[in-house]
Amino acid sequence: MTEIVELLVCTTCRRGQPTDAEGPRPGAVMLDRLSAANLPDNVELKGVECLSNCDSGCSVVLRGGPKRWTYVYGNLTEETGPDIVAEGAARYAATADGLVPWRERPEHFRKNCIARIPPLEATE
Amino acid sequence: MTEIVELLVCTTCRRGQPTDAEGPRPGAVMLDRLSAANLPDNVELKGVECLSNCDSGCSVVLRGGPKRWTYVYGNLTEETGPDIVAEGAARYAATADGLVPWRERPEHFRKNCIARIPPLEATE
Q1: Each residue of A60-98: pLDDT tens digit?
Q2: Residue A43 in domain
Q3: CA distance A34 to A26
Q4: Non-local CB neighbours of B103 within 8 Å, separated by 6+ positions
Q5: What is the domain extent for residue B93?
Q6: By the CB < 8 Å criterion, does B113 face chain A?
Q7: Which residue in A9, A52, A118, B15 has its CB near the most CB atoms, within 10 A?
Q8: Chain A stretch 38-57, residues whose beta carbon is closer than 8 A to a beta carbon of chain B
Q9: Interface predicted TM-score (ipTM)
Q10: How far is CA B90 from CA A50, B47, B80, B103, in A?
């Protein structure tokens, strides 16, 4: 369970705001707030540029090692997103394969999974 | 350029059809047709179960090694999808980092990128 989990946050996300909106982008704000959140030790938080989920942002990715499923979650906001993502990341990081039982997933994650990608190595 | 590229096709996809529709699922048909398509030697075609992009299926994933971006594409059909995906996979497989210049991507790929995920290893 010590394998590193990456939590990637799309920092370029405008979350549908007009391109001339002032101030930091919602995705960057979400990353900033997540950096102050209580994340498990094996979760590594990283900002990335454009996850190409612009129509359903803000977006994050959870991935970790060749045995875990990768998940893309969307429709997050900088207000409620950090708590949801911190909880979901902790659940994910506590698994060996990334498959969190449905009822243990944050409700937002259940309804806003954009895509999932199988592990590089088949699990048994 | 010899690193293997994986082309994952969601075979459980119903592409919005009712659950009692008869016959093989659209995703399975797409995989079957792709297996007869002309794919580069370094592209490995695989069927997978549920990429969780059900609202925008049929879906495929292109990934390949730690230096390439991973892409999820959606809104494909079993009729036109195989040719589009075969072309897009060939373009992808010809790159080192998975980044195909915008104008060289199949038009469907430009408009139906569901998400992209950065390489495991940073590229320079």
Answers
A1: 999 998 999 999 999 999 999 999 999 999 999 999 999
A2: yes
A3: 12
A4: none
A5: 5-117
A6: yes
A7: A9
A8: 48, 50-53
A9: 0.92
A10: 23, 18, 16, 14
